[in-house]
User: Fold these one by one.
Assistant:
Number 1:
Amino acid sequence: MKDNVWMRVFWLYGLHTFLANIFLALGYYFLPEGILRDSPLTWAANLAAGPETPGGEMALTLFFNLLVMAIIGVGLNLISVKGFPQGYFVPIVLGIISGLFLGTNSFVAMDLADISFRDGMAIGFTIGGLEMLGYIFVIAATVKLGIYQYQNWWQWNEKVRKVMPLREVRFSKSEIICLVVGVLMILFAAYRESFGIAGIS
C-alpha cells in the first residue's frame, strides 16, 4: 500500500467513512441536537461564513481548507512513526468530528432538519465530502515527505532518524496527479459552498 498512491486514497477514504458513520450514529442517538454548534470546533466555519459576498466567503474558505488544513496534513507527513505517516491522522480525526456534526445537526450555515434527504446528500457529497476527499488525495500524495522517522510513539525527543534531505524527495507521476486532483477538489468544493449551495437548498 505504501508504494501505491491510489491504495492509500482508498484506505484513507474507507477509514474516514467508517469512522464518520460510526460517530454519526453515536451523535444522533446519544448527544443533544446542536450541541457542537457553539463549540470551539465551529470557530473557522463561523469566520468563513462571515463575509457578505460569495467571493469573500470563498476566499476565507480556501484559506482554511487549502492553506491551513491541507498544509497541516502535508506538514504532518514530514513525520512518520513506525512507518505510519502522521498526516493520516487528519482524515481520522475529521471522520470523527464530521460524524458527530452530522449526527447532532451542529452545522453553522444550515439546519439539516430543514433539508430533504436527497438535497442533504447532494450538498454533503459536493461540498464536505468533496473537500474531505481532496484532503485525502493531498495527504496520500505526500506520504514520501516522511523524512523524519521515529520508532516510538512516546519519546519524541529521542531516536529520530532523518532519512534524507527534503530536497531529495521525488514524487511519482501518479502522486503528482493525485496531488493536483486533490487541490482541484478543494477548490471546487469551496466554489460550491460559496456560490452553488443556493441552487440545491
Note: The radius of gyration is 18 Å.
Number 2:
Amino acid sequence: MADPSIGAITTFDIKRSTFSNGAIREYWLRIPGLSGASDCDSVDLPIYYLLNPFQMDLVVMDALAVITTLDANDADIDVGLGDDAAGTNNGAEIIDSLVNSAAGVLEVMTVNAITGVSRPIWKKPGTSTDSYLIVNQKGDVDASQLRWNLFLKVIPYEDLIGNEGDQAAVTVA
C-alpha cells in the first residue's frame, strides 16, 4: 500500500520561518499587570503603550483579557494600535470597550463571520504606523481597582504572505 500522507511536517524550530519548514509560527504574548486609571480627563492619552517587541510585523489573531480584580465603575477601556507612544491614530481594533464588571477570562476580539474579519497588523519597530499597542481609558471615572492581564495570539505576517517568487503556476486546459 502506498504512503497515504499528503505532506510531512518537519520538526518545528521557532527561529525558522515558513519558507524553510512549511510551519507557521504562532505566539501567545502576555502583557501582565494592567489596571484602570484613577482619573482620565482625556480620551486620547494612553494609560499604557508597548512598542512591538519583535523585528517583524505581527498579525493579531486573538486576544484574551483576564480580569483578576473587577471594578464597579465602567471604565470603557479600548486596546488598539497607534503610530507612537502618544497614541497618534490609535484605534480599538483589539478591544472595543472592555466589560470590567466581572472577573474571569474574556475573549475580546471580534468573532469571525463567514465572510471573514480583517485582523490588525502590529507593525515592527521603526515603522511609521501601528507599531505601538495602545491601551486607552475613555470616560472620566475612577477605575483604579481594575486589575487585568492581556494575552495576544500573534502570527508573523511574513509566514502568511509566502514567498511570492516560489508560488506554483496553475494551468487550465
Note: Confidence is low (pLDDT under 50) at residues 5-12, 164-170.
